[in-house]
Design goal:
The complex is a heterodimer. Chain A is mainly α. Chain A has 16 helices and no strands. Chain B has a single domain, classed as Four Helix Bundle (Hemerythrin (Met), subunit A). The chains are: A mainly alpha, B mainly alpha.
Chain lengths: ~550, ~220
Amino acid sequence: MADAMTPTAAHSHPDYLSENKGLWNWLTTVDHKRIGLMYLWSVATFMIIGGLLALVIRLELLTPKQTIMSAELYNRAFTLHGAIMTFLVIIPAIPAILGNFALPLLLGAKDVAFPRLNLASLYVYWIGAAMAVSTLLLGGVDTGWTFYTPYSTTTGGGVSMMVLAAFVLGFSSIFTGLNFIATTHKLRAPGMGWFQLPLFVWGMYSTAIIQILATPVLGITLLLLVMERVFHIGIFDPQLGGDPVLFQHFFWFYSHPAVYIMILPAMAVMSEVIPTFSKKSIFGYKAIAFSSVAIALLGFLVWAHHMFVAGMSLFAGAIFSFLTFFIAIPSAIKVFNWIATMWRGSIDLKVPMLYAINFLLIFTIGGLTGLFLASLSTDVHLHDTYFVVSHFHYVMAGSNMIALLAGLHYWWPKMYGRMYNNTLATIACTLIFIGFNATFLPQFVMGSRGMPRRYYNYLEQFQTMHVASTIGSWILAAGLFLALATLLASLRKPKDAVPNPWNGRTFEWEAGSPPITHNFEHTPVCIYSPYDYRENPVPIAEEEKSAH
Amino acid sequence: MSDVTTTVHTDHQDHAHPPGLQHHFTNMTQQFEAAKLGMWLFLVTEVLLFGGLFVGYGIMHSKHPEAFVAAHHHLDWRLGALNTIVLLLSSFTMVMGVWAAQTGQRKKLIAFLLLTIILAMVFMGVKYVEYSHKFHEGLLPGKFYSHQGDTVPGQFMFFSFYFMMTGLHGIHVLLGIVAILWITFRAWRGHFSAQYYGPVDIVGLYWHLVDLIWIYLFPLMYLIS
C-alpha cells in the first residue's frame, strides 16, 4: 500500500505489549490495541458462558420430556443464552475487538479519535455485563431475549435489571461507533482518500452508522419497558389503553438493524482476508463499499418482517416483505465479488482463508433461508419454528463467529507477535464447520415440519433430529475449545512472527508484530491501492493519470 | 520501493506541542474538527433517543385525543412560555460565550457562561414549581395518578409522557449545567485562547440541542387542542 522503513531498521521503541506492563497500566490505557485485547478476553469469557448455556439447553432437548432441568429453568437458560450472546458477545465482538485493534492501524493512525471515550466504552461494557449477570441473583429472566410485552411487563424476576443492562451496553456500542466514524473521517493517513480505504474500514463505518442511529431507539424502548413495569405508564399495556405491538415495532426498529451490526463487520473481515490469501486485487471495490452502506441504510426499512403474524395490515406486510427481498441484493453483490476475487487467484489455504470459505458457505445458507421467511405466505407457516432459530443462527451466530475467528487468526500475529500451530488450527476450523452444520441443519428440517421454537417438550417424531442437533453442539464445542487452546498455546512461545506473515498490502503489516504503542515508527503515506497485488504495484496517482 | 522521504510526521518525542493538542492528532484543526464531528454524532443519538418518546407520545395521543387534551389543561402555559423564553435567552448567552472564546476574551467568556448557568437554573426553578404543583394535585404518571374529579378517563397516560419527556429533558439541563460549570472553570484557569476553544464550542452545541428539544416539547405539552 505504501512504503515503510524495514522494521528491523529502526526499533527504537518497545512494542505495545512490553511497554508499561502491569494490571494498572492496562486498566488505565488509552491504547486502542490494548483496549481491543481487553475486549477480546471479556467477550471470550461471555462467549464461553453463553456457549455453556447453549450446551445445557441442547442437552435438555435430547429427550422429548424432562431431561436435566425443569421447564422454568429451561426458560431462564435460553433467555440468558440469547441475551448474553446478543448483547455481550455478537454485537461487540468484531467492532470492539478487531475494529478497535485494526481500524487505526489500517488507516495509518496512531489511535482512534477519542481514546478516552474508547476506554470508557470498555468500562461501560463491564458495568452492563455485571448487571446482566446479576439477574441470576434476582430470580433470572424468562421472557426470551426479545422481552415481548405484555408478558415481560407482568412476569417477575430480573427483567428490569436485564433490560437496564441492555440499555447500558447500548452506550458502549454507541461510543465505539462514534469513535470509528470520527476516526475514519479525520485520521486517515496522508494520501488516503475514501476509495483507498481498506474495505474493512468501509464495513466498520457502515456498522457505526447503524450503531449511532439505531441504538438510541432501543435505549428509549427499554426505558419505556422499565417504566411500564415500575409505574404502569400504559403505553404497552392494552388494559390501560396501550399497544403491545407498539413494543415490537420499537424493539425491531433497533434490533433488526442490529443484525446488520452483527453481519457487516463479518463481511468487513472477509474483504481483507480473501484478497490477501488469493493474492489478487479485490473484485468490485466500489460495489462492496457501497453495498455495505446500502445494507446499513436499507436495514432500517425492514423491521416489521418480524411481525407478519402479529396482526399487522396485509398491505404493510407486503411492503415490508418487498423491502426485505431488496436487502438480499447488496448481500449477494458482496458474496459474488468475493468469489470473483478468488477466481484465478493464487489461493493459499491458510487458516484465516479456511474460515473465510466456511463463512461463504454458512452465510449463503443463512442468507438464502432468510428469503423463505421474508415471503408472507411461507412465513405464516415457518414463524416461531426452529426454521427461524436455525436461520438466525446461521447469519448471526455462525457467520459472525466464523468471521471473528477468521479475523482473529488473521491478525493474531499482529496482536501477540506469535504464530499459532497451523495443523491444530486447521483441525479446529474443520470441527467448527462440521459441528455448526450438524447442529443447525436438522433444525431447518424440523422447523419446516412444525417444531415450534422455545418449547420445552416436543413430539417424539422430532427426537432423531434433536439428537443430531445436540451431538452437533458437542462437535462445535470441541472445535471452539481446540481453536482457543491453539491460540493460547502460541502465547507460551517467544515472539516469532514477522511483520508481514501473509504478504498483506494494508498498513498494519508495515508496523511491527506486535506494533509499538504509537503504531508506526513513521506515519505511513498512502501511495498504492490497498489491494494492489501486481508484481510491480502502480502508484494511485500514476494510475489515475493513465486513466485520463 | 522506499520513497518514504515524504513522511509527514516522524517522531513522537520532539514535536513542539501547542497546549491542548493530544498526541494522536497532527494539528489543532484536525483535533477541533474531530471533536466537533464527534459532538454532532452524539447529538444525532440524542435526537433519536428523544425521537422514540416523541413517536410514542404521538401514537398514544392519536389513540386517546380527548384524554390528552383534557389532561393538558392542568398545565399552566404561561409557565411553559416563560421557560421557553428563559432557554432561548440562555442559548443567546451561550452563543455570545462561544464568540468571546473565539476572540480570546476571557472575562467576557466567563461572564456569559455564568449567565447561561443562571438562566438554566431559573429554568429548573420554574420546573420545580410546576412539578410540586402536579405532585400536590396527584397528577402523576401511571399507577400513581390520583387526581380527583376527572370527567375524561385515561389522563394518567398524558402525565406518564409529561414526566418522562420533561424529566429526561430536565436531566439534560442538569448535565448541561455541569458541563458549562466545567468549561467555566477551565476558562477561569485560562485554558482557552483564540487558538484553542474547542470544548466551549462543543458544549455550546450540546446546549443548543437541549434548547431545541424544549422548543418542541413546549407546544406538544402545553398547547394541544
